[in-house]
Amino acid sequence: MNEHSTNTVIHTLLNRRSIRHFAPEPIDPDIVDLLERAAQQAASSQFLNDWSAIRITDDGLKRALADIGNQDYIAQAPLLYVFVVDEHRNLAIARHAADGGTTAAADSPTLNVSYRYIQGQNDATLALQSMETAANALGLGCVILGSVLNDANRLIDLLHLPELTYPVLALAIGKPAESPALKPRMPRRMQFFDNAYPGDDATILESVGEFDATLHHYYDLRHADRPVGPFSDQIAKASTDEGPLIRPVAPIAARQGFDLSR
């Protein structure tokens, strides 16, 4: 065992797992405060702070999100956040500053371009990851929810998201009511490269069989009666999937005022 593996931060990161079933206990307000402060300490591109998080406390709204995600446990989460790209606040600040005579560029169309959209997504994801790590370190369980984007238009309407905002991910937090095994990760030689991406696909494929076998022996608590299928099969299916989860982003982003062509 590496001498650094006993470090509490490293231990938390290496033992991270998704928790989908929570004890029906509220989270102490002081803990909520700590989690939100941890999220705010995440890195932010150019310090634009171009993300926000909607704390979902209304039971009806939780059920609506569970319906969108097709995951009942979302409605049972004691603490639930939706993280969003937020250039709306920056536009409001710029307009306010312009009124005060400090800038002449309040309405120049730069907050809605693809670079800002991507950086806002990055910032929101980093903030969510910081919150999740903090929650795990405190003994809480979390699950990151991309499923709330199954119907992004409906989510935008439910949360009354204004122009220049866009939902990124949700995070459910609570006291764990399950203890799943750690899900295997692919061999690092398939994912970490020196100085450049491998020029020969054989280099990244040589360990696929090994990972297929490893993952096939993992049992997900959601399907405890059967092992998870080989990784290759999952990727092959996803590569041709044209089902309901494959939805275009650009039209919805355009509805929110972003121009992803720029």
TrEMBL record:
GO molecular function: FMN reductase (NADPH) activity
Keyword Oxidoreductase recorded: yes
Domain Nitroreductase per the UniProt entry, residue ranges: 14-175
Keywords: Flavoprotein, FMN, NADP, Oxidoreductase
One Pfam family linked to the record: Nitroreductase
InterPro entries, alphabetized: Flavin_OxRdtase_Frp, Nitroreductase, Nitroreductase-like
EC number(s) reported in the record: 1.5.1.38
Record family assignment: Belongs to the flavin oxidoreductase frp family.
Protein's name in the database: NADPH-flavin oxidoreductase
